[in-house]
Structure formats: C-alpha cells, structure tokens
Amino acid sequence: MLRAVALTCSLKPSPAESSTELLAQQVLDALAAHDVEGESVRVVDHDVKPGVDADMGDGDEWPRLRERVMAADILVFATPTWMGHMSSVAQRVLERLDAEISETDDAGRPALADKVAVIAVVGNEDGAHAIIADAFQGLADVGYTIPSQGSVYWNGEAMQRTDYKDLAETPEKVATTTQTVARHAAHLAALLSARPYPAP
C-alpha cells in the first residue's frame, strides 16, 4: 500500500482549528479512496530548528519528521498564505528538505526521486499561484516528482474574516480539484513505485 504524509505548515499550534490542516486532511481523505494510507503532521507542534542539514542537533525534531517524510510515497505540502507568501513554517520545511539534494539511494538515485509531492494552499488574500510555483520549484529541486494538476487552493474574499474552516460546505471547485490532485498523485506514485527512475 502507498503511504502519504501531509506536512501542515499552519502557524497555529494544536489544538487550534486550522484551515490549512482541514484542506490537507481533505487531500488525504481523497487519497485514501485510491488505497493510499495517510497521516497529517502539524509542523509547528515540533521543534524544527532553522538550517539546511538533516539534523541540526540540540533538540532538533526534524529528524523524526524526516523519517515520516522518507517513508511516504506522497508528500502533501500544505501552507496558509500570509502577506502573499507561504508561511514561515513552510519555508523552513523547504530549507530542511534542502539537505536531501545530496542524499542518494543504494543505486545512486536522488533519495526523493521516486516520491510525489502535491500542494494545498489556503488564505484570505491573493498569492496561491505564486506560492505553488515557488514550492513546486523547491520540491522538484530536492527530487520530488510533480503530477499533472498537482495543487489545490482556496482564496477567500480579500480583507474579510471568513476562513476556509468556517465555510458551511467545501466549494465544488475545491472539492473536484482535490479529487483530481489525489487521483493523479496516487497514479504517479504507483507508477514510480513499480518502475523507479533509472540509476545513473
């Protein structure tokens, strides 16, 4: 069975409600329909040190999160929009993943090359497209494969206080896009699991 992990990069520690976590969970639920087992991790609940190494020492909790990332076939990278950008937590995750550029498997392939990444973004302001572009660039750089139509986002009305989690129901466009993201991600992950990239 394929596995997925959602790194939810909300700025709100648990148990506060999080729109970002809600959308990430909806992606995981959609993946479950394609026989993908998933879990969600709220990164801000862990002491992830700044840096670009796999282990920054001194109580750094990234190594434990990294184990879950490395064990997953699919990464769901979920972030809110703040001031038009991804959250600082999301940026830190990308910086910590940078260490994987130099990591290879036993065949000499990039350690993340046979893994798939998708993105979920929420916010009450513009910026989702720019965030998705920036995040996909970083995730591709460290080795992830990006599926066709591999992102879903919700932008609320600018300068209003309604959050995604406060909506009475999921907008149809978000729901159908989430299904597409999951379908394409599961398909690609299954292909890569069966036929990994060739070794150098």
Automatic annotation (TrEMBL):
Gene3D superfamilies: 3.40.50.360. InterPro entries: Flavoprotein-like_sf, FMN_Rdtase-like_dom. Coiled coil: none annotated. Residues 4-154 form the NADPH-dependent FMN reductase-like domain. This is Flavodoxin family protein.
